[in-house]
Automatic annotation (TrEMBL):
<dbReference type="Pfam" id="PF02798">
    <property type="entry name" value="GST_N"/>
</dbReference>
<protein>
    <recommendedName>
        <fullName>Protein URE2</fullName>
    </recommendedName>
</protein>
<dbReference type="GO" id="GO:0003714">
    <property type="term" value="F:transcription corepressor activity"/>
</dbReference>
<dbReference type="InterPro" id="IPR040079">
    <property type="entry name" value="Glutathione_S-Trfase"/>
</dbReference>
<keyword id="KW-0534">Nitrate assimilation</keyword>
<dbReference type="Pfam" id="PF00043">
    <property type="entry name" value="GST_C"/>
</dbReference>
<dbReference type="InterPro" id="IPR010987">
    <property type="entry name" value="Glutathione-S-Trfase_C-like"/>
</dbReference>
<comment type="similarity">
    <text>Belongs to the GST superfamily.</text>
</comment>
<feature type="domain" description="GST C-terminal">
    <location>
        <begin position="157"/>
        <end position="306"/>
    </location>
</feature>
<comment type="subunit">
    <text>Homodimer.</text>
</comment>
<dbReference type="InterPro" id="IPR036282">
    <property type="entry name" value="Glutathione-S-Trfase_C_sf"/>
</dbReference>
<dbReference type="InterPro" id="IPR017298">
    <property type="entry name" value="Ure2"/>
</dbReference>
<feature type="compositionally biased region" description="Low complexity">
    <location>
        <begin position="20"/>
        <end position="35"/>
    </location>
</feature>
<dbReference type="InterPro" id="IPR004046">
    <property type="entry name" value="GST_C"/>
</dbReference>
<feature type="domain" description="GST N-terminal">
    <location>
        <begin position="67"/>
        <end position="151"/>
    </location>
</feature>
<feature type="region of interest" description="Disordered">
    <location>
        <begin position="20"/>
        <end position="47"/>
    </location>
</feature>
<dbReference type="InterPro" id="IPR036249">
    <property type="entry name" value="Thioredoxin-like_sf"/>
</dbReference>
Length: 306
């Protein structure tokens, strides 16, 4: 299988995987680099595991930053980069602490005190008494609420809020887990099980068909409202409309966290053999609009706030 050139920190770990390599070798390739950004604490703050290695999270918790947000993530985790994308879009000050799964840093008691599920992502808001939030969807909502009533990625209307949260739940409970399972059985499972690969890839396609239909209906509505009557009469094809390449969004007429919650997973779905461009053209255009945004580019490159 040809391996595409990595285009961001997010895709680099997945792009390094060869499906024909032994499991142990693949896992070794997947390990993140040692984190070069140390978030606080000197030698006196270091605590050690039983094997003598330093607990970096213990050191951090003893001397945390005084402002901004700390994002706990992993270098190949779409859910972590999902939060980074929204932080970047909102212009919130943040630093990323990349956990080293090889050292089981996610199981550090100091990290479990932040996220009892011992998974990523999680955040600490140093502007709010080091308040901890975990689960990516909950984090996105919290960040929008933190940004205030004029947050462009959220809504003050409770009806729109319910639609946004419906898509967030759909993405977190269906879209992400199914892609994750498809990746697992394709690249990490100790034995090749074609039926499992097909089952999860098929479910991912079903989920994308839901999004595709929603976006297609939004585009048709846009063209009917904004273009000339030939489209409403059916005498002109929708593809001929000047609005055929205009962005459309899941909720209302603007991008929200409902849209952004999908973008990092869309960015890696080609690794399970799904071509958004060929199979789901509206999803492809939607993803492209988001991927071209400077804040998204910055977040996927691993860059943080200034």
């Amino acid at each position: 299988m040809d391996r595409p050139k990595p285009v961001s920190n997010l895709s680099s770990a997945l792009a390094a995987i060869n499906i024909n390599q032994p499991q142990a070798q693949q896992q070794q390739q997947q390990q993140p680099e040692q984190n070069s950004t140390y978030l606080g604490g000197g030698p006196s703050a270091h605590e050690q595991y039983d094997n003598g290695t330093i607990d970096r999270i213990a050191a951090y918790r003893q001397n945390p930053p005084t402002e901004g947000i700390s994002l706990f993530s992993h270098r190949s985790a779409p859910n972590g980069f999902k939060v980074a994308v929204v932080l970047s879009e909102l212009g919130l000050k943040f630093k990323t602490f990349y956990l080293d799964f090889k050292k089981s840093e996610q199981r550090s008691p100091y990290y479990v005190s932040i996220n009892p599920n011992a998974r990523i992502p999680a955040i600490l808001d140093h502007d709010n008494n080091d308040h901890a939030v975990w689960e990516s969807g909950a984090i996105l909502i919290y960040l929008c609420q933190k940004a205030g009533p004029d947050c462009s990625l959220w809504s003050e209307d409770y009806t729109e809020q319910s639609i946004i949260t419906s898509w967030l739940f759909f993405q977190a409970s269906g879209h992400a887990p199914m892609i994750g399972q498809a990746l697992h059985f394709r690249y990490f499972h100790p034995e090749m099980i074609p039926s499992a690969i097909e089952r999860y890839a098929g479910e991912v396609r079903r989920i994308y068909s839901v999004v595709e239909m929603t976006l297609a209906e939004k585009r048709e509505q846009l063209i009917m409202e904004m273009d000339d009557e030939s489209f409403a009469l059916g005498t002109s094809a929708l593809s001929e409309s000047k609005y055929f390449e205009e962005p459309v969004w899941l909720v209302g007429s603007r991008m929200t966290i409902a849209d952004l919650s999908f973008v990092t997973w869309n960015h890696v779905v080609d690794r399970i053999g799904i071509s958004l461009k060929d199979e789901f053209p509206e999803v492809y255009k939607w993803t492209r609009f988001m991927m071209e945004r400077p804040a998204v580019i910055r977040a996927l490159s691993g860059l943080e706030s200034n």
